[in-house]
From TrEMBL:
Catalytic activity, EC: 2.7.1.49, 2.7.4.7
Keywords, alphabetical: ATP-binding, Kinase, Nucleotide-binding, Thiamine biosynthesis, Transferase
Organism domain of life: Bacteria
Pathway named in the protein's UniProt entry: Cofactor biosynthesis; thiamine diphosphate biosynthesis; 4-amino-2-methyl-5-diphosphomethylpyrimidine from 5-amino-1-(5-phospho-D-ribosyl)imidazole: step 3/3
Species annotation: Hoyosella altamirensis
Catalytic reaction(s) noted: 4-amino-5-hydroxymethyl-2-methylpyrimidine + ATP = 4-amino-2-methyl-5-(phosphooxymethyl)pyrimidine + ADP + H(+); 4-amino-2-methyl-5-(phosphooxymethyl)pyrimidine + ATP = 4-amino-2-methyl-5-(diphosphooxymethyl)pyrimidine + ADP
Pfam families: Phos_pyr_kin (PF08543)
The protein, known as: Hydroxymethylpyrimidine/phosphomethylpyrimidine kinase
Domain Pyridoxamine kinase/Phosphomethylpyrimidine kinase residues, every copy: 24-276
InterPro entries: HMP/HMP-P_kinase_dom, PM/HMP-P_kinase-1, Ribokinase-like
Length: 287
């Protein structure tokens, strides 16, 4: 377990990270998944809630958006007092919320701001739940593509989100590389194109590139129907490692191992899809 992130001593202030995302009342994805992973990675998680979903293991039946100025105020409040080593975005729901997040982050030095000193920003471009319920308004796609992606230190779409953002249907390594190029053209510093939804392959083969470096990250595919919150967990673990000062390839390598363990520990919940789980971390190491 020497791959795990270092943990602070009791009483010592831990490394901090910020999630700007939606709440999942079922506790499987969104802010709840981010906070679980941050806590069990030993990172203090701060939160800017962008939307509240009414949700269980079967689906999403309601969305209540937080006023954009309140989302921005949460970000400013924690960054200017507590300080964060990295931030991540998840469900942002609407164009006005995306615009407020982008402006606030730019002002606080979060993400690609065009200025020197910056706090890394992981953009998980959440568009829909695994049940197919929308988590992003259709008129917010342009804001996501044109405003938020250019601010990303790394963008971590699933293959449905890749299709939405680039129009490319990833079916093999060639289309995976093409999609990565497109996301870099949109302005992201790094793109991670997951192989997780390529159901035909026995392995999960993700491509991570910044246009100069190219990393193929392979892990075996964990067969489970309980993978709710998997993308959130990967992005949150990446943010945790970036907050610790890891390079982007180092952070994603850590996050892949983390999410694989969480997929192995996923459990059934309710009548639908259960969540990936970082609770394995509470077991004695090595068990
Ligand atoms: O897993 C993506 C996601 C992110 N955020 C919220 C969600 C979901 C999926 O359901 O509900 C709030």
């Amino acid at each position: 377990m020497d791959w795990l992130l270092p943990v602070s001593r009791p009483g010592e202030t831990p490394v901090r990270a910020l999630t700007i995302a939606g709440s999942d009342s079922g506790g499987g994805a969104g802010i709840q998944a981010d906070m679980r992973t941050m806590s069990l990675c030993g990172v203090h998680g701060c939160v800017a809630v962008a939307a509240v979903t009414v949700q269980n293991s079967v689906g999403v039946t309601g969305v209540h958006e937080i006023p954009p100025e309140t989302v921005a105020a949460q970000i400013r409040s924690v960054v200017t007092d507590i300080g964060v080593g990295a931030a991540k975005t998840g469900m942002l729901s609407s164009a006005p919320i995306i615009e407020a997040v982008v402006a606030e982050c730019a002002d606080l030095g979060i993400g690609n701001t065009g200025r020197g000193q910056k706090i890394p920003l992981v953009v998980d471009p959440v568009a829909a739940s695994m049940h197919g319920d929308p988590l992003l308004r259709s008129d917010a796609l342009d804001a996501l593509r044109d405003l938020l992606i250019p601010q990303a230190t790394i963008v971590t779409p699933n293959l449905d989100e890749v299709r939405l953002l680039t129009g490319i249907n990833v079916v093999d390594s060639e289309t995976q590389a093409h999609a990565a190029e497109k996301l870099l053209e949109l302005g992201a510093e790094w793109a991670l194109i997951k192989g997780g939804h390529l159901r035909s392959s026995a392995e999960s083969r993700d491509l991570l590139t910044n246009g100069t470096e190219r990393h193929e990250l392979t892990s075996y595919r964990v067969q489970t129907g309980n993978d709710h919150g998997g993308g959130d967990t990967l992005a949150a673990a990446t943010a945790c490692a970036l907050a610790h000062g890891y390079s982007v390839p180092g952070a994603v390598t850590f996050a892949k191992r983390w999410v694989t363990k969480c997929l192995e520990s996923a459990y059934p919940l309710g009548a639908g899809h259960g969540p990936v789980s970082p609770l394995w971390r509470l077991l004695p190491l090595g068990s």
